[in-house]
Amino acid sequence: MQEVGTNPKRSSGRMCCICNQRRAALKRTKTLEQICKECFYDVFEEEIHQAIVSNQLFKPGQRIAICASGGKDSTVLAYVLSTLNKRYNYRLDLFLLSVDEGITGYRDDSLETVKRNEIQYGLPLKILSYKDLYGWTMDEIVKMIGLKNNCTFCGVFGRQALDRGAALLEVDKVVTGHNADDIAETVLLNILRGDIARLSRCTSITTGQFIALFSTIIGFCLLQTLDRLATYAYFKKLDYFSTECIYSPNAYRGFAREFIKDLERLRPRAILDIIKSGENFRISTTMKMPEQGTCERCGYISSQKWCKACVLLEGLNRGLPTLGIGRNRGSVNGRKNSEETKGGKSIESKGCGTLDF
To answer: How many C-beta atoms surround the C-beta of residue 164 within 10 A?
Structure first.
């Protein structure tokens, strides 16, 4: 269900097919309905509300952290969830949770947007930094390792930082702005990498404590695409940051994104079809899956002795930045180690790699 703007000259004389009172501003490609801005807001927000209610995503009194990067998706997420919480009296305690990776000229600027959102939406804000958590900023990491594998570090550290932030805020759920485009890209990436474990869970709206509210919701058929979120943010004149990360141009995810966009031009339903394929994958009951445990070093969730973050940090601190990257086999604590390298598959952030939820 995707909305795209229409040519003003062609739609100037058409009235909204829902209210029949205002001029149409955009067309819904699924139904070909031409609707006005106000009806678009109502449809957009009501679909999200119905998805929340139908899937029982929240309970009254819960503490909910909203992942806030200052970008379009997370800004729309914060605005809509705050609006619906007041309108329908969800009785949720909402918080903004941000991660400062330490990228000069990118994250420092986007966090200024988040700070404005904190005031605009009246939501408390918690910011965690890589420097405080790990002793390194991404600028320092890139200076050491270069641009080839930097997204692996950022994705691993970022995912763990969100968990730590959730623990500090004592929240019940963490809501992210990942949308249908992101999920489709992740399905494709996990297929290309042969990552069966992540492929089995990457299409779920809820994975553990995390909720990807803008993804496809099984049973409700809600498809929140990038174009639709962009349309909502544009019409609402939301305050968001739109610059891409300066370290992500060659990220693996970018190639999957371009491929999917090419498919979408040939077949508009390509994104939905890819997600549906991911939902239909079944893992053989005879296949042995990694058993979840805890890292012996930091206590974080891990299927190995050390979690991925600790392996990467060990490499940085020892001057061996490729330790734990790809098929490299380094030595940790005097033993050969392949801590969660997953057969040469790096784990990256939303903008750069897999959604590791």
So the answer is: 15
Per DSSP, 65 falls in state E
25 phi and psi angles, rounded to 5 deg: -120, -15
pLDDT per residue as tens digits for the range 147-188: 888 888 998 999 999 999 999 999 999 999 888 888 889 899
Q: Give the Cβ contact number of residue 275 at 10 Å.
A: 22
Write the CA distances from 176 to 182, 208, 277, 294, 357, integer angstroms: 11, 13, 22, 24, 10
CB 126 within 8 A of CB 169: yes
Specify the pTM: 0.82
Query: How many H-runs (helices) and E-runs (strands) does the chain carry?
Result: 13, 13
Specify whether the CB–CB gap between 175 and 208 falls below 8 A.
no
> What structural domains and CATH numbers belong to the chain?
1-35 (no CATH), 41-283 (3.40.50.620), 291-327 (no CATH)
Best CA proximity match to 112, nearest among 239, 234, 235: 239
Neighbours of 128 (CB within 10 A): 18
Within 10 A of 161 (CB to CB), how many other CB atoms are there? 23
Phi and psi at residue 220, to the nearest 5°: -115, -20
